[in-house]
């Protein structure tokens, strides 16, 4: 990944005026719920928590915790955009907008040269083309199957007795990748267990899993087209093994986010950016 830095995102270099507009984005995804508070160009507060069977309550909680981190009162927030699967359940939002547009806007806020966003979330993988202003041009999404999503990796990691956050570390241990022939999570699980029982190193199996996810995403990306710069968002972007396999398969360098911004927050950030655009209009 290449690095870039956006000075406006480094809180220590910013001194926002008290009258700067404050807005928020709340992304209720299939797996996690996220909130971002934006004060002018400064990211003032963020929060990530698990999604639940009560998205309205979860939305309240993530918003409150992001406000606490920002040390901002609720009544100071001028506009709130809800996004993600549960966006209609963000009862306090002024409006809700599809996460596809929000990921584009969020990635563009951090990397203005972005033209393709690959969002790998818990349930969906989306390849999103944006214009020079970060506006949605086209997109492709995985079919209903979990292959190529975070859920696939969560499931197989669990079967291997691992946390999904450990997969990246195992990826870089010694071992040639095995081929995982099944895309279906259930069949892939049996295949992986058999491979381990036959003596395949864990690193080989993990690399094979990451390659299978990357292949799946590659086929969506080829349909949509892949114009650089390319930014990867969503929780799976925190897995360096998936990043490495994707860079090899897609034959592009993925742009990393300035200030080590958490890629899982980009949808909520984009929702906040859209909220700011509405206020400033
Ligand atoms: N530290 C981590 N390392 C590796 N993978 C991670 C990590 N944290 C989360 N993930 C992956 O990210 C996924 C969740 O991503 P995200 O929060 O973007 O999904 P979501 O927005 O809820 O889903 P969707 O957009 O599909 O509705 C998890 O399923 C998990 O596989
Ligand atoms: Mg999401």
User: How large is the radius of gyration?
Assistant: 19 Å
**CATH homologous superfamily (4th level) name of the largest domain:** ATPase, nucleotide binding domain
State the CATH architecture of the largest domain.
2-Layer Sandwich
Given helix and strand content, the structural type is alpha/beta
Largest sheet: 5 strands, mixed
Coarse morphology: globular
| Mean pLDDT over the full residue set | 92
Top-tier CATH class of the largest domain: Alpha Beta
Look up the CATH topology of the largest domain: Nucleotidyltransferase, domain 5
Structural commentary:
The protein has 281 residues and is an alpha/beta fold. The strands form two sheets. It has a five-stranded mixed sheet with strand order 3-2-1-4-5. A five-stranded mixed sheet has the order 8-7-6-9-10, sandwiched between helices. It is globular and about 65 Å long. Strand 9, helix 7 and strand 10 form a beta-alpha-beta unit. It has two domains: 124 residues, 2-Layer Sandwich (Nucleotidyltransferase, domain 5), CATH 3.30.420.40; 144 residues, ATPase, nucleotide binding domain (Nucleotidyltransferase, domain 5, 2-Layer Sandwich), CATH 3.30.420.40. It contains eight helices and ten strands. Helix 2 packs across helix 8, helix 3 runs parallel beside helix 5 and helix 6 packs across helix 7. Magnesium ion binds next to loops.
């Amino acid at each position: 990944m290449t690095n870039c830095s956006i000075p406006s995102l480094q809180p220590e270099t910013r001194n926002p005026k008290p009258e700067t507009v404050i807005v928020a984005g709340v992304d209720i995804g299939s797996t996690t719920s996220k909130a971002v508070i934006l004060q002018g160009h400064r990211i003032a507060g963020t929060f990530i928590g698990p999604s639940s069977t009560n998205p309205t309550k979860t939305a309240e909680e993530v918003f409150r915790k992001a406000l606490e981190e920002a040390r901002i009162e609720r009544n100071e927030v001028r506009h709130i955009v809800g996004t993600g699967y549960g966006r209609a359940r963000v009862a306090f939002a002024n409006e809700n907008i599809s996460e596809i547009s929000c990921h584009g806007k969020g990635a563009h806020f951090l990397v203005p040269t972005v033209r393709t966003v690959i969002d790998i979330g818990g349930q969906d993988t989306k390849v999103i083309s944006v214009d020079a202003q970060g506006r949605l041009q086209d997109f492709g999404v995985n079919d209903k199957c979990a292959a190529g999503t975070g859920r696939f990796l969560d499931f197989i990691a669990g079967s291997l007795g691992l946390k999904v956050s450990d997969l990246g570390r195992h990826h870089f241990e010694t071992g040639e990748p095995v081929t995982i022939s099944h895309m279906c999570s259930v069949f892939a699980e049996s295949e992986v267990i058999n491979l381990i029982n036959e003596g395949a190193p864990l690193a080989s199996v993990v690399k094979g899993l990451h390659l299978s996810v990357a292949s799946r995403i590659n086929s969506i990306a080829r349909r949509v087209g892949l114009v650089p710069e390319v930014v990867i968002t969503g929780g799976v972007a925190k897995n360096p093994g998936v990043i490495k396999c994707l860079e090899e398969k897609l034959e592009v360098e993925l742009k990393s986010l300035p200030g080590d911004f958490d890629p899982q927050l980009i949808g909520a950030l984009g929702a906040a950016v859209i909220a700011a655009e509405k206020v400033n209009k």
